[in-house]
Backbone:
């Protein structure tokens, strides 16, 4: 059986190694593609494919289909432009190729935009942070005044873009903070209201930003596997300093179950929550593997392997082993020599 992961993040290489290290993955041939021939997936994959760079969505989808046919692929896991491949999913099916997309394009649009996601959570009654959208300094100041006067930010405020990954653009706003001191500390996410206002006023940015209630409690990252809207495996990582503690039950996992059903999700996904006032509050959900997914797999459930096995129909979801809670985990990277 041949499985093709299209261009994704660095965790694609981790997923391939996890599949390969398990005896159940021995019969699966893994193909990976990327626009960068030196990307880590080129070394992790059994076969590497160089993707086209500057092409339209339609041209990219057609290239994927023809490549999958030529290479006799059984399962395509689209990580780049999934909506474009979804648009011609019937042609993949007619060619005998399974297309393993997380959700329909209209769902992906909601999950991609954190403001639309917040509105959707309010509709279905899943706790999410209060927020206001803004673009300009005037809109920012008005949003701050509204949230403060209405008591919607008891633990402070933070900002982030409505669309983004890796926490880019996220900052915790502080009334009294020395920005120079903050700059001297690695990984510091605090910024004064004064500096943020000055930066916003001087910028030409034209994107939707979100002013949000800051949540001070413990953060959880839930890696889960869903099959046609049903949660079949989930592990929560509770972030505790330099380490993370694995959980296999609790409110964050129940939220994953609710959202997998609501959005009809399939494949590997991830969501983040934080506690506030004793309640688990959803921050966001991503229809893809997380960067820490391999830590969750230390619970005893190989998420990428079972994702592939169930998508190919080689195993039933009922056979997925129960994950073990309680372990403390952390990431470790190893250096490597780069050869041309």
Residues:
């Amino acid at each position: 059986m041949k499985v093709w992961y299209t261009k994704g993040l660095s965790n694609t290489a981790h997923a391939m190694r996890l599949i390969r290290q398990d005896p159940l993955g021995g019969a699966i041939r893994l193909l990976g593609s990327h626009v960068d021939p030196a990307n880590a997936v080129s070394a992790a994959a059994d076969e590497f494919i160089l993707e086209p760079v500057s092409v339209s969505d339609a041209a990219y989808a057609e290239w994927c289909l023809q490549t999958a046919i030529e290479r006799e692929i059984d399962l395509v896991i689209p990580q780049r432009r999934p909506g474009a491949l979804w648009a011609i999913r019937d042609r993949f099916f007619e060619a005998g190729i399974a297309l393993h997309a997380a959700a329909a394009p209209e769902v992906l649009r909601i999950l991609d935009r954190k403001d639309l996601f917040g509105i959707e959570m309010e509709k279905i009654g899943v706790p999410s942070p209060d927020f206001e959208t803004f673009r300009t300094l005037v809109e920012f100041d008005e949003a701050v005044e509204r949230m403060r006067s209405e008591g919607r930010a008891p633990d402070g405020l933070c900002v982030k873009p409505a669309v983004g990954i890796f926490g880019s653009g996220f900052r915790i706003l502080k009334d009294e903070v020395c920005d120079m001191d903050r700059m001297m500390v690695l990984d510091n996410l605090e910024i004064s209201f004064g500096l943020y206002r000055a930066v916003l006023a001087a910028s030409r940015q034209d994107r939707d930003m979100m002013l949000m209630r800051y949540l001070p409690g413990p953060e959880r990252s839930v890696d889960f596997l869903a099959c046609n809207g049903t949660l079949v495996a989930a592990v929560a990582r509770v972030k505790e300093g330099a380490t993370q503690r694995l959980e296999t039950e609790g409110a964050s996992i129940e939220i994953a179950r609710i959202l997998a059903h609501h959005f009809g999700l399939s494949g590997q996904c991830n969501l983040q929550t934080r506690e506030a006032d004793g309640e688990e509050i959803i921050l966001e959900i991503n229809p893809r593997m997380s960067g820490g997914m391999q830590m969750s797999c230390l619970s005893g459930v190989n998420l990428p392997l079972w994702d592939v096995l169930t998508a190919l129909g080689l195993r039933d979801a009922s056979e997925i082993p129960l994950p073990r809670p309680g372990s403390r985990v952390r990431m470790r990277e190893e250096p490597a020599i780069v050869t041309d």
Notes: The mean pLDDT is 93. The chain has three domains: 2-101, 130-213, 217-329. DSSP finds 13 helices and 16 strands in the chain. The domain at 2-101 is CATH 3.40.50.20 (Rossmann fold).
